[in-house]
## 1
Amino acid sequence: MPEFNIPVGMVRPYSTRQRAHSTIFRRRLMRDAIGPDNPLWHLLETLCLEDVINFEDDFTSDLVTPFWATAETGTGTPFANLADTLGGVVRGTTEGADPASERLLPTNNRVWSTDARPLMLARVAPGSLITTSKFEVGFAAADQAAGQMNVKATPSANGVDFAVIVRDTTDDTETSLAVARAAAAVNVTDFDPAYTWVLSTYATFAVALNEINEAYAWVNGIFSAVNRTGGPADATAIGPFIGIFARSSTARTLDVDYVKIVSERRVYSST
């Protein structure tokens, strides 16, 4: 990594060190300075732009259309910014019909893959009745009008290459981690401890993937599920997928406060 030339008279960044900004914020240098056991490590790691890719949207304005796309089944209200809402929120509301849905996903900017060890966080809240509904959030290789999962109870999928947190009252009231890899069978792991949804109450869900077929899930910082038998295939382009699906003739609403994705800038081999 080359050093920057510092013009004469310019106040040197980090004057106590003789390195430029882009060099000091390398993970290897931070490891030497404070070590990964330091509580500041995970906070500062996201600033290591030579090593880490960061994406974050707090939805403080209209959806950034070069990245985000909306899709729907039926004639509901697609995800859109709620004006003058503290912190920024987008909301999607389905038509009152089964299987109406509203989905939030990238246009064609799926720039992550499992072998770059991505982590996605999404803070969401159900804005209508929790019964007779389906919810999905996580990573997927493509949109699916009926959601990535088809049936949880006897696992089958609509999508290929995905790892999503799903709750579908057609099957049960469990929140689960569902994964599928290429043509392999879909696998579902229920959250333990179980998560209880609360109307109009935000929860932060997280999904992490890696190159050795592992998928992990958390809710509100609590580790909840792991699956070591699937997840999107290495080198397959994936991106965020968020969906709300009606399971009756009553409309369903989902609010999304923010989405954050962090991944390695390099890829790792599974062998």
## 2
Amino acid sequence: MWPYPFWIAHRGAGKLAPENTLAAFRLGAAHGWRMAECDVKLSQDGVPFLMHDATLERTTSGHGAAGERPWGQLAQLDAGGWHSRQYAGEPLPTLENVARWCLANGVLLDLEIKPTPGQDEITGQTVAARAAALWADAPVPPLLTSFSVPALQAAQRAAPRLPRGLLLDTLPPGWQATAQALQCVALVCNHQLWTPALVAEAKALGLRCLSYTVNDEAEARRLISLGTDGIVSDAVDLFCPARGQALADAQPGAAQGNEEIGRASCRERV
């Protein structure tokens, strides 16, 4: 049985809080989201920590390549002030910080392996091995995803029991063989790629069908009607995960009409 909820909060809470921080995770959970997506890379000294970009400028007070700084320096950076004064001083979290928070609060994780350029294999290996240890006793492990095939190959070798998902922005030739060789459980696509034919092909291969990054109600209803299995979204304040989950759990086609999946539909639930 697929253990993950349909709705996944992108980088913790979309754009409502500084991405890939514990503040974002807390806000997403406060809106009723039971699963979050985040990006993980390695510091210079091999500590897995959360950050999307290869460089520090956009989302921290630092400068230069994130992977070229030791964790002791990265830990001192402000990862919240760029977003708003409210979050000034919010630190970068380690994978261990996030794992302990998720386990304590019942939040599941889509863990995107986001290597610094040239560090695909060591990042996949280190993140997978550390995740396997941190979630060793958890009933539901994190879903490891990546655009990087070498990173997923290394993760497969390091922690073969952890589930893996192949991220795709386009459909390259041979994606089917790649997903099968990696023993993936999910195909995580740019939402515009999903068609009835692609959903059928993926499911025939035993793959769950997930989408990123969906912030529009009409598109979310289209994806639910296709019978896909998950949506990564920034819109944690727009969608109602409880109502959307109920529609997703119904038969394909349940959301073809004007059924409400927005926040107004769950005022009494969240």
